[in-house]
Structures are given as structure tokens and as C-alpha cells.
């Protein structure tokens, strides 16, 4: 059951040069709800996510988290508000270990003055990384292994863990199962399905409609930066969603704002 509104996006607009990547997009996501963000390549999905996560500053529009507006905040600032993001390109550091990647940017440090030397509590970090991965049932034999040496599936699992482990309010996943095998895909979807029970709001970007229908409550569809509609993510809406993505005849529910 959806709870209070966690994220409110209001007329969000972002251009790159004279190309409008996002054109007045508005929707909300509530606690315990999984909303799929759908659209063809170039529709503006990743741009929207980066506006919310603080990577891009929107040109116009408002973003509010738990009723509080924010604008052009830093990535670290947004993360500190309880927002976790799994980026499409994974954003892992290949030469760093599994544990270091999980905590990159928020490493547990010794108190000053040692902290001034950037001394990280390595043992604490390793223990915490092990606990986090165990909690999420992700099995990586050696947490000191550089992630560049791991398989694509393991890397994706670590990126997902990093995005969801410390996020209390909102988790955003940009194509988290792209390039995964069937079993690994199942593992990631299992992690996503667990989030609503903890009251977390979820935005899921995926090209796989079966996957979307199996986990999401509803779908918001973008086409060329514009929001073309929002529908329930059910098998009955499958054809409607496809026609909204590719832009065929006007589908029922078209133009609805969610
Ligand atoms: N940093 C950027 N500079 C210039 N154009 C960009 C940039 N990021 C995205 N775009 C353009 O904005 C549009 C939307 O891109 P994107 O949000 O990545 O789409 P999606 O994630 O839906 O595939 C595309 O036309 C893309 O080329
Ligand atoms: Mg994208």
C-alpha cells in the first residue's frame, strides 16, 4: 500500500543546448510504491534521474522530498537526505575493492586529527560491507577484490547494493538489470521488491516490460522529453504502455498526470 508522498516532481525541465531533454514533467512517488519510468532511448529518463540525484541542475521546475523543496543540491547532499541511486553506467571504481566501492564518498573515518589524514577505518568498513551484502543476500567471496576483476553480474549486484543499502526514503534504479543473466536479474528484482516493505519509495527505469509489470505498481511514460501518460503497471495495460512508448494511436489514459 502506498503511503505519504516521498518525491514530488513538478514541471521539471532541462535542456542541453537547444535540445529539450525534459519538458515540464510532473509526477509523484509515495512511500512503499514502485513507479516505473519508461520511454525509448533518448526519452529523458536518465536526465530526470540526474536532476533528482543532484548531478544536473534543472532549468525549471521543482523537486520536493517529503514536502521539502530542493534545487541544484550536490550529489552528497541528496544522498544524505536518504536517496540512493543506481546509475545506468554503474559508477563503480574498478581499481577499488568491493568494500571501498560500497562506501566510496562516505567511508567510516577515524576521528580528527587522524581523520585529517584521510585515515579510513578499514576493519570497520570491511565488517560493515560484509553485513550489508549478507543482509541483501549478495555473495561475493572476497570483499578486498578490486571490482574490475568481478563478473558483470557481481558488479551489477554491488552497484545495486551501494544504491539501496543506505537509502531510507527513495531508491532510484536506472536499468539495473540490463546485461544481466536470468538468475542475476532475479536477484536484483528480489532486492527491489523488498524495498516497499521498508516504506521506501522506488523509481525503476527498465526496458523490459515483463520485468516492469512484475515489480512496479504504475508506470510513467516519457517520449522525447515529454510525459505522455501514466498507467497501472499491469499485464492488461501492456499494449497501452507499448503504444505510449513508441507513440502510436492515442492510448487510453494518455495525458493523465500521476
Ligand atoms: N550531458 C548531455 N549533453 C548533451 N545532451 C545530453 C546529455 N545528456 C543527455 N542528453 C540528451 O538528452 C536526451 C535524453 O537523454 P537521456 O536522458 O540519457 O535519455 P534516456 O535515459 O531516456 O535514454 C538525449 O537526446 C540525449 O542525447
Ligand atoms: Mg538512460
- The CATH topology of the domain at 5-82 and 167-246 is given as Rossmann fold
CATH architecture of the domain at 5-82 and 167-246: 3-Layer(aba) Sandwich
How does the overall form come out from the CA principal axes? globular
> How many individual helices?
8
Distance between the termini: 16 Å
Could you estimate the helical fraction of the residues in percent? 25-40%
Computed over alpha carbons, the radius of gyration is 19 Å
Biggest pleated sheet? 6 strands, mixed
User: Are any ligands bound, and if so which?
Assistant: adenosine-5'-diphosphate, magnesium ion
Coarse structural class:
alpha/beta
- Average pLDDT: 86
CATH H-level superfamily title of the domain at 5-82 and 167-246: P-loop containing nucleotide triphosphate hydrolases
What does this structure look like?
The protein has 258 residues and is an alpha/beta fold. It has a domain at 5-82 and 167-246: P-loop containing nucleotide triphosphate hydrolases (Rossmann fold), CATH 3.40.50. The chain is 30% helix and 25% strand. The protein contains eight helices and ten strands. A six-stranded mixed sheet has the order 6-7-8-3-9-10, with helices on both faces. Strands 2-1-4-5 form a four-stranded antiparallel sheet, covered by helices on one side. A hairpin with a 2-residue loop joins strand 4 and strand 5. It starts with a strand and ends in a 12-residue tail after the last helix. The model is unreliable at 253-258 (pLDDT under 50). The site of adenosine-5'-diphosphate has 11 residues, from strand 2 and helix 1.
Amino acid at each position: 500500500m502506498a503511503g505519504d508522498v516521498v518525491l514530488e516532481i513538478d514541471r521539471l525541465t532541462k535542456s542541453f543546448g537547444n535540445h529539450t531533454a525534459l519538458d515540464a514533467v510532473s509526477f509523484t512517488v509515495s512511500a512503499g510504491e514502485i513507479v516505473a519510468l519508461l520511454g525509448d532511448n533518448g526519452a529523458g529518463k536518465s536526465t530526470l534521474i540526474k536532476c533528482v540525484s543532484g548531478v544536473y541542475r534543472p532549468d525549471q521546475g521543482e523537486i520536493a522530498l517529503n514536502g521539502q523543496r530542493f534545487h541544484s543540491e550536490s550529489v552528497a547532499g541528496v544522498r544524505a537526505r536518504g536517496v540512493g541511486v543506481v546509475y545506468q553506467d554503474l559508477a563503480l571504481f574498478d581499481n577499488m575493492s568491493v568494500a571501498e566501492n560500497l562506501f566510496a564518498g562516505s567511508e567510516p573515518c577515524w576521528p580528527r586529527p587522524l581523520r585529517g589524514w584521510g585515515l579510513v577505518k578499514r576493519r570497520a568498513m570491511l565488517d560493515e560491507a560484509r553485513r550489508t551484502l549478507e543482509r541483501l543476500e549478495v555473495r561475493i567471496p572476497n570483499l578486498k577484490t578490486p571490482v574490475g576483476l568481478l563478473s558483470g553480474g557481481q558488479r551489477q549486484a554491488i552497484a545495486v547494493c551501494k544504491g539501496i543499502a543506505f537509502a531510507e526514503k527513495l531508491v532510484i534504479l536506472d536499468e539495473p538489470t540490463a546485461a544481466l543473466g536470468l538468475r542475476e536479474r532475479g536477484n536484483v528484482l528480489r532486492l527491489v521488491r523488498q524495498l516497499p516493505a521498508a516504506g521506501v519509495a522506488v523509481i525503476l527505469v527498465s526496458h523490459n516490460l515483463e520485468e516492469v509489470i512484475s515489480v512496479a505498481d504504475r508506470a510513467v511514460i516519457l517520449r522525447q522529453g515529454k510525459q505522455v501518460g501514466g498507467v497501472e503497471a499491469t499485464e492488461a495495460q501492456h499494449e497501452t504502455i507499448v503504444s505510449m512508448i513508441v507513440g502510436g494511436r492515442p492510448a487510453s489514459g494518455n495525458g493523465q498526470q500521476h
